[in-house]
Write a structure and sequence with these properties.
Oligomer: heterodimer
Largest sheet of chain B: 7 strands, mixed
Structural class of chain B: mainly beta
Number of strands of chain A: 12
Strand content of chain A: over 45%
Largest interface: A-B, 22 and 21 residues
Order of helices and strands of chain A: EEEEEEEEEEEE
Distance between the termini of chain B: 37 Å
Radius of gyration of chain A: 14 Å
Shape of chain B: globular
Helix content of chain A: under 10%
Distance between the termini of chain A: 41 Å
Largest sheet of chain A: 6 strands, mixed
Helix content of chain B: under 10%
């Protein structure tokens, strides 16, 4: 069975602080994809990053970085020098494409960035 | 980049009525999905909309309550039937296989915010 755990329900930081959002997953598949999505107050789900199970290389995009470690089944997301516009709910998700495409979402982490 | 639109963006409905939500993509896609997001919750897959055939529903969701159509590769509808206040949620259309983007990534429409009184 697949499962995605985001243990942090809410995080509150002050602007310019760094913050890491944790994601731990469970799967028996050898081929899978991991995602992060951002949901601002407007409600739209915005795709941030995709990682496939064979690519453990970490990625940096501006103030965003992602750390994928298969050994600990984790795919953590760090925002450096947070800004008020980063305030949103962030979802980690796990997809498989064997026997039909299926995506499991974590419960989400609500991030508040205060000015 | 491809655009996914949903109509209506929001609605307030009376219990016992039905609402049909439309999802339009400006390019053909491989798969289309419908999700529900109840207030303060994560996303739950309702069904996969299959082109030209009946949708594939997840456990806990039935066709009589959530009929879905997908007449072609760019359009789908979800109807929420005989609504009750418990149906108040955001309903999101999602697609896979958008041309020019990651083919194994789901992209989402802006959502339809439904309130049932």
């Amino acid at each position: 069975a697949q499962k995605v755990t985001q243990a942090q329900t809410e995080i509150s930081v002050v602007e310019k602080e760094d913050v890491t959002l944790d994601c731990v997953y469970e799967t028996r598949d050898t081929t899978y994809y991991l995602f992060w999505y951002k949901q601002p107050p407007s409600g739209e789900l915005v795709f941030l990053i995709r990682r496939n199970s064979f690519d453990e290389q970490n990625e940096i995009s501006g103030r965003y970085s992602w750390n994928f470690q298969k050994s600990t089944s984790s795919f953590n997301f760090t925002i450096t020098a947070s800004q008020v516009v980063d305030s949103a709910v962030y979802f980690c998700a796990l997809s498989r494409n064997t026997g039909g495409f299926k995506t499991i979402f974590g419960a989400g982490t609500r991030l508040f960035v205060k000015a | 980049s491809a655009v996914i639109s949903q109509k209506p963006s929001r609605d307030i409905c009376q219990r016992g009525t039905s609402l049909t939500i439309q999802c339009q993509v400006d390019s053909q896609v491989t798969m289309m999905f419908w999700y529900r997001q109840q207030p303060g919750q994560s996303l739950t897959l309702i069904a996969t909309a299959n082109q030209g055939s009946e949708a594939t529903y997840e456990s806990g969701f039935v066709i009589d309550k959530f009929p879905i159509s997908r007449p072609n590769l760019t359009f789908s509808t979800l109807t929420v039937s005989n609504m009750s206040p418990e149906d108040s949620s955001i309903y999101l259309c999602s697609v896979l296989g958008l041309a020019g983007l990651n083919t194994d990534t789901q992209y989402f429409g802006p959502g339809t915010r439904l309130t049932v009184l």
